[in-house]
From TrEMBL:
Cofactor(s), names only, from the UniProt record: Fe(2+)
The protein, known as: Putative phytanoyl-CoA dioxygenase family protein
Family classification: Belongs to the iron/ascorbate-dependent oxidoreductase family.
Species of provenance: Octadecabacter antarcticus 307
Domain Fe2OG dioxygenase: start-end pairs: 77-214
Species classification: Bacteria, Pseudomonadati, Pseudomonadota, Alphaproteobacteria, Rhodobacterales
Length: 266
């Protein structure tokens, strides 16, 4: 299946105006399926090499997944929004099996990230399987990016897929961002968003890539990120290496260092 044309300047203009945008054509459906296969192999290898399944910073261990983070269409969008110099702060996978109860509470990504300023950041959420209303696609509350940092409560709920269970109480209509496999949505750090459980029969698998301009600072502790475009003239982040082989010893060491830092939720 061929891809539709990508007008990155148009995407950037709309994202900057509203702080969310969808859909963005990134991969063919066949390519998305290949990434699903690579991710499933990654989970098996993560268990074998690290003793547990890790979904944060997988791009530091798998060249196949790193290639998605540096895909020409992904970088075309990131550089159109942030400029020629771009760091990948983190990556993550959100997996909802068919008929599962997992959900993502209403929240702002800025709540625990420690990054400042938040305007020089874009989250790219790539659907690797169809992400529709029935399967719990991402939803945003338009305009909330202008409200500043809202007060969140960390709530314990085994079904909440967020690490801290951070939740903000909002009363407003939400906008669904349905995607076909291979399409992406964009959202800012301050826009309130979340997603409902997957009530469909098939899995909903998404990979989120969080890109920042090198001028952004981490306010918590010394952090790390991967330089994916241009140069870093600020030295606010230690640079993470892009892996050249699958679960190589040096890649595992870099990964273990990264997940101890704020970008790895350490």
């Amino acid at each position: 299946m061929s891809l539709s044309n990508l007008d990155a300047p148009h995407v950037a203009e709309n994202f900057l105006a509203h702080r969310f945008y969808a859909p963005v054509p990134i991969l063919t459906q066949e390519e998305a399926t290949e990434v699903v296969n690579a991710f499933q192999q990654f989970e098996l290898d993560s268990l074998a090499h690290l003793g547990k399944v890790h979904r944060f910073k997988a791009h530091l261990l798998s060249p196949d997944l790193a290639r998605i983070a540096t895909h020409p269409r992904v970088l075309a969008v990131a550089t159109a929004i942030l400029g020629p110099d771009v760091l990948l702060w983190s990556s993550d996978f959100f997996v909802k099996p068919g008929g599962s109860t997992g959900y993502v509470s209403w929240h702002q990504d800025s709540t625990h990230a420690g990054l400042d300023p938040t305007d020089d950041i874009v989250n790219l959420w790539l659907a690797l399987t169809p992400s529709k209303s029935a399967s719990g696609c991402l939803r945003v509350i338009a305009g909330t990016h202008d409200a500043g940092q809202l007060t969140h409560t960390n709530k314990e709920d085994a079904d909440n897929m967020l690490f801290f269970g951070q939740t903000v109480d909002v009363e407003s209509d939400s906008v669904a961002l349905p995607l076909e496999a291979g399409e992406a949505s964009l959202h800012s750090m301050r826009i309130v968003h979340g997603s409902e459980p997957n009530r469909s029969d098939g899995p909903r698998i998404g990979m989120v890539l969080r890109f920042i301009h090198p001028s952004v600072r981490q306010t918590k502790a010394r952090d790390s990120a991967t330089l994916v475009a241009g140069v870093d003239a600020f030295n606010h982040f230690d640079h993470e290496p892009i892996p050249t082989s699958h679960f190589a010893s040096d890649a595992i060491a870099a990964f273990k260092d990264a997940i101890r830092r704020p970008s790895g939720l350490g």
